[in-house]
Amino acid sequence: VGNIEVLTELLRQGADLNVQDEKGFTPLIIACYNNKYDAVKFLLKNGANIDQQDFGGNTALMGVAFKGYNEVGKLLIERGASLDLQHGNGGTAMMFAAMFGRNDLLKMLLDAGADKSVLDVRGLSVFDLAAQQGNFEAIKILENA
Predict the structure, then answer these.
(1) What's residue 104's pLDDT?
(2) In b/e form, how buried is each residue of 92-113, taking b as 16+ CB within 10 angstroms?
(3) Based on CB atoms within 10 Å of each CB, which residue in 6, 36, 76, 111 is the most buried?
């Protein structure tokens, strides 16, 4: 997914940039999850659905928040990724960032307008999830946002 020449050829042959594999992963989701910045940029430029969800409801932005890829996260945010989409259990990209200590991404999401009042299916907020993980820096960031 990171090879631009291959992606260009596939696109030239009419490939669907939003095709999903058996888990619902799209080329964009896979490129984001593997921190392939140039491929992400190429896919977005050529019409990949930035908010496409896999079969669990996860988006490219959620994958980036889980993995902690700041530059790819910044690109997705700048290109208009929906900040508050929820996956099957109600989690958001911001919740992933808080749970996994991706505090730079947490700040980016908040600065871009992510909603810190969203609750998951258990009724937990991003504050609750940060506290469960002992991410006190995230709690401070959230309180000051």
Answers:
(1) 97
(2) bbbbbbbbbbbbebbbbbbebe
(3) 76
